[in-house]
Amino acid sequence: MYRAMSMIAPYRWPSLADDGERTARVNVTVAYSGEDLCRLLLDDGAARGSLPKSMNALWDYTAADMRSGQYPFYAAEKRVIEEVLADNSSSNWPIGGLHPIVNMEAFSRLAMCFIREAVAQKTESTFAERAFFAGETCGAYRNLGQFALARAALARAQELIAQAESNPERELADWTLRFEESELAAITGGTNATSRLFEEMLEKINPGIRDTTSRLAELNLMSLQALELKQRERYCESIPRLIETIVGWEALLEDFASGVGTEQMRAQLHYALSADLANLGGTFQDLTRYLRVIRIMTAMAQGEEVTSSDARFLELSDLHPKHVLNVMDDSLLAVLEVFFPSGVSEQALFLAATGLLERALSLSVPIAAWDFVAIQGHRLAQLYLQGGNQAAARKAMQSAMKAAARISDYDRLVGGYIFLAEMALNDGDGLVGLAHLREATRQHLRQLISRGHEAHSDAQTLALIRFFAHRALDREGDAGEAALIVESLKAVTTASSMITGRPDQASAAITEDVSPMAAKMCKREELRLRAIWQTDAKDQIDEQIKVLNAEITRDSASASRFDERFGRWVSAVEFDLADIDSFAQRLARLGPQATFLGACPLGNKLWIYAIWPGGSDTAVVDLPEPTLLTAAWSEQDMGRLVQVARLLVLPIDERLRELCPEDVLVISLSEEFSHLPISALPYGDGVLCESVTLCFVHGIGMLEACLDRPRLTYRSILSLGAPSRPELPDLPAALREAEAIAGLFNASDLEANCLTGESATPRGLVNSSDGYDVLHVACHAERVSSDGDRLALMLTPDLRHKDSGILTEQRILAEVALRNGSFVNLSGCATGLQGDTGAALMSGLVPVFLIAGAGCVMASLWRIEDDRAARFQLHFYSEILINADPLKSLAHTQRSCLSGELGDDMKSPEVWAAFQLFGSGGGIRE
């Protein structure tokens, strides 16, 4: 099929990178000649009309279904493959001339990639050709921000290229895959290898050959290299290279002023020129911010008063003065002086940036390059606002957002709504400002979910939404709505996983493609088993496990494509922003007086808010020194708890005085409070758990997911305790605890299964977990270095099945299937500690058990002496058998400890304050 390898310029995709500026181009394709290159890039009616009707139909309705937002990407890909393989005529469908050209709408481009891969599979094309097509599918997914699916396509392409023969066709595919891998790594936070790749590719271009194809290739690579240099803030090199590239595009446009295919090729070149004009304009716009920082800092050093707008600019800017001075050095100023002979100033850079972006936009709109219209319009709106033209700024942003919506560019949509919210708040309209922030939050949620279950929120986006949501309160915005916006952004990925499931979760669709991953997981457990006895080789074994972990992670991304829940999950149609009315209705399930209390940081302050059916309250308090919240707590540190109580509880004292001890207070923890014993906070004449019944969540999404799970009657329990491990001390108290708790259920004519000692293996737990309403686990919990230093339950090694007995977070998700709505009690050391609680995804045993199906999870914040922990748990289950409500049972047990009913040695907060209940609780009994 291929006669020569050529480079082309005109295929660009927007990434969803945090800087809002990164673009990428697929830089290689195949053509017979320069004229053939032009022909392949055409998308006129004749070319489209030459396609078979069935192929056209499949293309059209697949793109339309995905565009609607109601049909998952995975399902669309699977359907295309099945239809192509079943259609006898598809063996004759053309795929070599089907190239996803620049101005093709994003969903049509992806649908085309599906078809090409499927036809190549059906016709048994070469491995190199199939790898090339899979690489372009990766790029199409990346264009839409579907990074998890992009990685899966790339993994598929890499498997194919490994089987290809060594020839020019394979080299072409290899370049494509290396490019895609480097771009994905750059976008998702990995190592950026693009600079080295560009240098290698530029070296392959013969400078003596100046035909169209070579000139396109050279300019394309020069442009990519300039952009990569810009991203690393090497402006001294990137600015001259960008200008050189712009001149090259303009010269090439002059050469194409006449001839066959001129209009189509001119559109492609306009696209490329538009991109580099915008990149140069964006560079100058960025440098105006650097100059502004220098100006403000100079004024402050000279004792001049800083304006409120400059002060807010410094507060919201992520530019550190020292970094700014390092970038804006003498060498960069010398480069700028060449292009600005009248002087380098904020105004000069501002005018240049505005002119360049206006010209870029004028090239992008006529060719329907919506990706660039979104980026360039967004930049122009910021510049217009900076120049004081609010009407032009609003109009430019609204146009940019319309273009962004066409291509599902969530970053631009989120940024646009935040921009409009700020403008509304500056005009004093808190209601409109909150409406825009609400939409920004909704789009941000969907962006996170679409990126896959490992996605994290951008810290700057979160900070902006929090800042403006609180600012709206001073402009007659509703406190409850503002709080819901902030709370909906906590632990987004954990909450969405609870609603729709995760690809690596137990009971996922299993295919033969999962078997290599399963084999590697078994090998990993075998290695962990060896490490228990071969302590002298532990370091080497840990290194082997880390390598396996990396392979398993890659396999998991690939296998997830075969799980229908993954397709639903990334489509984001089942997850949305909470609204005040539906949330109040859900909250009322915990009782008519149930109250939600949340906190979020605002710089050096803390925003406290409370919501309950029919009302809300809010306050902002000054944060003391950081160590007050971040340092580890000890029993002797009660003074700190007094200070924390003043921060968290006193601002809503008026509401708390309306509650009685049986009323539920749901506390949504921010990261700062996640390790503190909130139940022991001084309040009134005692402590907080005496005045209200407490439960904990990380965000409103998690609470709503728990509340929507079944409320079970707790008629059965699986009690697992005192696993036998050679490297850890025995747990005789845990053995008595597990047996006694099972005995309590048996004595009440309820079902109980007790696994202890040699029977307390992961296999024993996995085989029984979905058959019981309650899962009680009393064992050691240790951090596993080979698993990223994450906490794991240490069960009994299973020599027969070569199982280490180490139940990690990943294994819990992959193997443990809980009864939906069940209650899980992790009676181990510090099982309640969690990480990244302010971000989209949390780590810890509690979140994974909630994702696995639990309605609530009880865990401890620190180690408790075994005998006292066992006494606490026995009393807790006695309460469960009376009222079947974990929330009330925990509150009653803590109060019994405080009163001395369980013994004087149980009065200490060291015992009862360690236990916290996460989720909604709320079991029932018939």
Distance between the termini: 72 Å
Radius of gyration: 30 Å
Q: Give the strand tally.
A: 20
Number of helices: 39
Helix content bin: 55-70%
- Structural class per helix/strand content? alpha/beta
Order of strands, main sheet, comes to 13-12-14-18-19-20
Report the mean per-residue pLDDT as an integer: 80
Note the main sheet.
6 strands, mixed
Strand content: 5-15%
Large-scale geometry: globular
The low-pLDDT segments are: 1-48, 508-514, 566-573
Summary?
The protein is α/β, with parallel strands linked by helices and 926 residues long. It is 55% helix and 10% strand.
Account of the protein in words:
- It contains 39 helices and 20 strands.
- The protein is an alpha/beta fold and 926 residues long.
- The protein has a 6-stranded mixed β-sheet, with helices on both faces. Strands 7-6-5-8-11 form a 5-stranded mixed β-sheet. Strands 15-16-17 form a 3-stranded antiparallel β-sheet.
- Helix content is 55%, strand content 10%.
